[in-house]
Amino acid sequence: MSLPRPTRQTKPAPGSPVDPAGVLAALPYPVLVIEGGEAVCEANAAAEAFFRTSRRRLVTQPIVALLPEASPLAGLVADATLGQRTVTGHGLDLTTPAAGSHRSVDAVIAPFGEVDGGRVVVTLMERGAVEMLERQLSHRSAARALTGLAAVLAHEIKNPLSGIRGAAQLLEGDADEEGRALTGLICAETDRICRLVDRMQEFGAEGAGERHPVNVHEVLEHVRQLAAAGFASSTTFTELYDPSLPPVAGNRDRLVQAFLNLVKNAAEAVASQPEGRITLHTAYRPGLHRQALAGQRRESLPLIVAIEDNGPGVPASLAPHIFDPFVTGKPSGSGLGLALVAKIVEEHGGAVELEQRPGRTIFRIALPIGESAP
User: How far apart are CA 57 and CA 51, in angstroms?
Assistant: First the structure.
C-alpha cells in the first residue's frame, strides 16, 4: 500500500480570499461567537486553552455555563446582542472551579455581521498580561528618575554628612553624659542616611551590564541556597521548574540581585506564618510581547519566573504602587528593594507584576530568550 504523495504548498496570490476560520484560529486571544445572546456557536484554539475544554464541548453549552455565577460578562453579551453595538468590560472576574486559578479579563463584545440571530464576537484578554505591560511605562520612568537622583544624592548629601558626623565626634569628647547621648544620636542618624544613599546609588548603574545566555534555574538555585543558609533558614522551599526552559538573555549578577530581593521579601512575609512556604516557579508561555521604544522591534517575553509565598500579602492600598520608590508596608523598610527589582527587569527588557489573593502572593517576571537559544 502506497502513501499519498504530499501536495506542494504554494504561496497564496496577492488579493486572494482569506479564510475567516483561519484568521480566528490564528488569534492569540480567546474568542467566542455567541448566537442569540447565550449559545456558543464557535470558539478558537485560544478559547479552548483558556476554558480548558475542547471546542466540541464549548459549542454545546450556553455562555453562562462557562462563567462564574452572576458574572457581568453575561449581561454585557446580552446588551451587545440586543443593541447590536460594541460593548467593553474591564477587570471582569472569570474565576471558576474548572479554571482552577484566578482569571481577570478585559472583554470586547462586538456585533458579528448582520445575522438575524444576533451573533456577537466576544474577545477576552487576561488582565494580568495587560497590567504587566501597562506598568512597565511607569517602572521605566521611575528607574530613570532614580538614576539621576542617585548621582545628586551621592555628591550633594554624602559629603556634608561626613562633615556633620566628624563634628559630632569632636563635640563628644567635651560633652557631658546627656551631650554624648545627643552626639551619638547625630552619628547614628547620619550613618542611617549614608546607608540609604548607598542603596540609592545602586540605581546609578546604567544598563544591565554585559549580557549572556544565563540558565535561570542555576540563578534561582544559587538564590535559594543563600536564603536557606541565612534569612530564610526556617522557611520551606518548593521548586516547580520547567526543565526545558531555554537560557535567559541577561546579566547573572543582576538577576541574582533581583531574585534575592524578591525571595527576601517573601521570607519576611511568611516569618509570622506557622508554616512559611516559598515556591519558585518557571514556565515557558509564548504570547507576551513588548516594544521598548518607538521604532524598535517587538520583543517576545516567553520565559516566566514566579516567586510565590503564603504570607498575608501586600496591603490593597499599596499594591498598585509597590514598585515605586519609597513605597513600603514595612515599618523599617526603605521602599527601594522592589523599585530596584523593577529597574533590573527593565534593564533586561522584561516585565514584572504582582498577583495576589488570600494566602498567595506571586511576583511574576517575564524575560526574553538568550540569543544563543533556539
Answer: 10
pLDDT the model gives residue 10: 56
H-run or E-run covering 51: helix 45-51
Residue 373 clears pLDDT 50, i.e. is over it: no
Span 209-217, average pLDDT: 84
Amino acid at 91: G
243: left (phi over 0), alpha (psi -120 to 50) or beta: alpha
Name, in order, each residue with C-beta under 8 angstroms of 154's C-beta and a sequence gap of 6 or more: 197, 200, 201, 204
CA dist., res. 139 & res. 161, Å (int): 30
Spatial distance between the Cα atoms of 136 and 350, rounded to a whole number of angstroms = 9
Q: For residue 299, give the H/E element and its range.
A: strand 299-300
Query: DSSP characters for 125-142?
Result: EEHHHHHHHHHHHHHHHH
Q: Which three cell numbers stand for residue 229?
A: 543558609
Average pLDDT over residues 215-239: 92
* Whole-number Å distance between alpha carbons of 298 and 296: 7
Nearest Cα neighbor of 330 from 310, 315, 309 is 315
- pLDDT grade for 133, boundaries at 50, 70 and 90: low
- Residue whose C-alpha cell is 480567546: 30
pTM: 0.55
Q: Which residue has the cell 546579566?
A: 251
In contact, 104 and 126? CB cutoff 8 Å: yes
Q: Is the confidence at residue 197, as pLDDT, over 50?
A: yes
